Amino acid sequence: MSGAVATAGVGVADPGAPDPGPSPLPIQISAMASRSIKRLIRQPALVIPSVIFPLFLLAVNAGGLNAATHIPGFPTDSYLTFAIGFTFIQAAIFSTMGAGQSLAQDIENGFFSRLVLTPMRPTALMAGQLAGLVLLGQFQALLYLSVGLAAGANFEAGVAGYFVLAALVSIISIGFGGIGLIMAIRTGSGEAVQGMFPLMFVLLFFSSMTLPRNLIEQDWYRFLATINPVSYLIEAIRSLFIYGWDAEALALGFGIAAIVAVLSITFAARSLKGRMLR
Fold this sequence. Notes:
Elements: H1 3-7, H2 25-42, H3 44-64, H4 79-108, H5 111-116, H6 122-151, H7 158-187, H8 190-194, H9 197-205, H10 219-227, H11 229-242, H12 247-276
Helix pairs in contact: 2-6, 3-4, 4-6, 4-7, 4-9, 4-11, 6-7, 7-12, 11-12
C-alpha cells in the first residue's frame, strides 16, 4: 500500500491505536489521485501505446485519404485538419483500457480487498482512479494539437479554442474511463477489460471518422454513423479545427460526452458499492 494512501488515513489502522475516524473525502481523493498519477508515470508501457498509435494512424490516414478533399462539399482542403479530431477519441479509448486495467490489477493483487477494510469511500476510489486518466488526456490533447499544427493542420478556434478542447477531452476521458471501471469492477480481470477494446474500436469504425456523414454514400453506413454517439464527439473536436466555433457541433459533443460520463460513473459507482459489500 502506497505511502500516500496510508498518509490519508485509509491504511489498515493499528489495532492498539485509538480510532481517529475516517479521513475527510478531499484527503482520500488526493491520496488515491496521487497513487494513480504515480502509477501512470512509473508504467510507461501503459502510456506509450495510447500516445503513439493514434499519431501513427493519423499519419496513415492523412497520407492515404488526402484525395477525399477533392470530393465536392468536403469541408476543408486539408485532410490532416479533418482527421485529427479522430485522434483524440482514439486516445480516449486507449485510456479507457488503461483505467480499467489499473483497477483490475488492484482487484487481482488484493489491494482492493485491503481498501474495503478501511474507511475509504467509493467516491474517493473512483475519483482517484480517474485522476491519472484525465491528466493523461490533457497531455495527449496538448501533444496532438502541437503535432497537428507542426504538420500543417489548421486550428481555427485559436487560443480560446484550446481551453474548450481541453474541457471536452476531460469530460470524454471521464466518460470512457467510467466504462473501463465498470468492466474492471464487474469482472475483476485485466484480460476481460482488454477484450472490450475490439468493441470500442468498432464504434470508431462505424462513425464519421473518415468522411463527413453527409458525404457517406452507403445508406446503412450513414445511418450507423448518425446514431453512433462517437460521431458527435469527433465532430465537436473537428469543428474547432475546421470552423472555429460551431455552436451546434459543440453543444452536441459536450452534451453527449456529459451523458456518457454521468451514466458510466453512476453505473460504476453502483457496481463498486456492490463489490465492496461482497
